[in-house]
Design a protein that fits this description.
heterodimer, A: mainly beta, six-stranded mixed β-sheet, four-stranded antiparallel β-sheet, 46% strand, B: mainly beta, 53% strand
């Protein structure tokens, strides 16, 4: 079946521009996560959506970052006024259930380059 | 503050050798410990996972050892193959489901 789909796969933008990154989770998965991976670094948690609960936004690095999930499915991560330090791979993951009963399924990420 | 500490950052092993990656955690609420494998240009993929009620889990050439009292767990890759060259991440989560990841270990298996 289809896995987690992210688009675009690559995005180059100029400093100061806004960007939108899209994630289509696996159908039926209730939990959706965004992580950021800088070159050669680990996975930095950004935000977590679980069903109809309020999202856990504790990992968003600044108020330039926001995310929404419409209809419990597709999610969009928006970065306003991009900075060079925002350059990274943005990974989306989904899981069938909340917590320890379900592993995460990752997309292949969006590689963002801010020039 | 990183909740899951992973070491080493990188390792090189000869084909047929054993790769060992270690992780430690502090949060006693964690009760699910997966390992993920990531190839360049791809997202991480689940490799193997363990719950704290068992001390070891084996799947093929991959084994997780878990020490609850020490709050440590490790991944052993037996008979390492060049195709195992990848970055490996340990992770931990609790019932809430916020996964915390280690910093990753880049494994290179030489022919």
């Amino acid at each position: 079946g289809a896995g987690v789909s992210q688009s675009p796969s690559n995005k180059v933008t100029e400093k100061g521009k806004d960007v939108e990154l899209r994630c289509d989770p696996i159908s039926g998965h209730t939990a959706l996560y965004w992580y950021r991976q800088s070159l050669g670094q680990g996975l930095e948690f950004l935000i977590y959506f679980q069903g109809n609960s309020a999202p856990d936004k504790s990992g968003l690095p600044s108020d330039r970052f926001s995310a929404e999930r419409t209809g419990g499915s597709v999610s969009t991560l928006t970065i306003q006024r991009t900075q060079q330090e925002d350059s990274a791979v943005y990974l989306c993951a989904s899981s069938l259930l909340q917590g320890h009963n379900s592993p995460l399924h990752f997309g292949n990420g969006t590689r963002l380059t801010v020039t | 503050q990183q909740q899951v500490k992973q070491s080493p950052q990188s390792l090189i092993v000869q084909k047929g050798g054993i790769s060992i990656i270690n992780c430690a955690y502090e949060n006693t609420a964690f009760d699910y410990f997966p390992w993920y494998q990531q190839f360049p240009g791809k997202g991480p993929a689940l490799l193997i996972a363990i719950r704290p009620d068992v001390s070891e889990k084996k799947e093929g050439r991959f084994t997780i050892s878990f020490n609850k009292s020490a709050k440590q767990f490790s991944l052993h890759i037996m008979d390492s193959q060049p195709g195992d060259s990848a970055t490996y991440f340990c992770a931990a989560t609790d019932s809430w489901g916020k996964f915390q990841f280690g910093a990753g270990t880049q494994v290179v298996v030489t022919p």
